[in-house]
Write a structure and sequence with these properties.
The chain has 247 residues and is of the alpha/beta class. Helices cover 50% and strands 11% of the residues. The chain folds into two domains: 50 residues; 192 residues, Carbonic anhydrase (Beta-carbonic Anhydrase, Chain A), CATH 3.40.1050.
Length: 247
């Protein structure tokens, strides 16, 4: 058997004691060397390979938050995405107990508008609220207030997009099944303002919803007044992936 001394003159209990002593010394040395190697590698990892803090937690102002989204969208347009390079397991661990998103995005529910992807963001970075027509309903406002007042988001972006079905349906004003028409009353002011042009009405809707967030919520208004929060409107072109800020 491996580990038993077979040398001449070795036998009985004496042989067994030698074998066990030899095995114990080898095991001790192997364990010690393995532990030392692990310590060295851990030290190297701490100095060279340790992950940096999530970017979401380093953004401290509305201007920085907006810049992060603008730069992320530029990377998306240029097909130079970086979010997949981040260790998702580490991001999950860091956000398991607490989330600190730097921005809220009120987006349409349209499947062609994957918010995190078009801004090149990952886990824990963006607090996304989605509803057809990107409208500021009572429930949506409550969710966005939570993002700003509790989670500490620095920016709210109302993100409209090209060929929006909710806006198109509001312009058409035809009978629709179920409760779909309940969306119309939120979007109708934009159609009244911009007319039947889909792009113009879609952009007008984003501006109107952004203004509603500023004016209808004392919570958000207070943070804006203190310089801790900004609200902007934007348009996403589903053809080329570009997000344009709306004045």
């Amino acid at each position: 058997m491996h580990g038993i001394d077979k040398r001449p003159g070795c036998g009985g209990e004496e042989c067994g004691d030698r074998a066990m002593a030899s095995f114990s010394r080898r095991r001790f040395l192997n364990t010690t060397l393995t532990g030392a190697s692990a310590g060295v590698l851990a030290g190297i990892g701490t100095e060279l390979g340790a992950p940096s803090p999530a970017r979401a937690q380093t953004i401290t102002s509305p201007a920085e938050a907006l810049q992060a989204l603008v730069e992320g969208n530029q990377r998306y347009v240029e097909r130079q995405l970086t979010f997949y390079q981040k260790d998702l397991a580490i991001l999950q661990q860091r956000t398991a107990e607490k989330q600190e998103p730097f921005a809220s995005v009120l987006s349409c529910a349209d499947s062609r508008v994957p918010v995190e992807l078009i801004f090149d963001q990952s886990i824990g970075h963006v607090f996304v609220n989605r509803v057809a027509g990107n409208i500021a309903t009572t429930e949506i406002i409550a969710s966005i207030e939570y993002g700003a007042a509790v989670l500490g988001t620095k920016l709210i972006m109302v993100l409209s997009h090209g060929n929006c079905g909710a806006v198109a349906a509001t312009i058409a004003g035809k009978a629709v099944p179920g409760q779909i028409s309940s969306l119309y009353r939120y979007i109708r002011p934009a159609v009244n303002q911009a007319g039947d042009n889909l792009r113009a009405a879609t952009e007008a809707n984003a501006r109107i919803q952004a203004q509603l967030l500023k004016e209808s919520s004392p919570v958000l208004a207070g943070l804006i007044k203190e310089g801790k929060l900004s609200v902007v409107a934007a348009f996403y072109d589903v053809k080329n992936g570009k997000v344009t800020l709306l004045s």
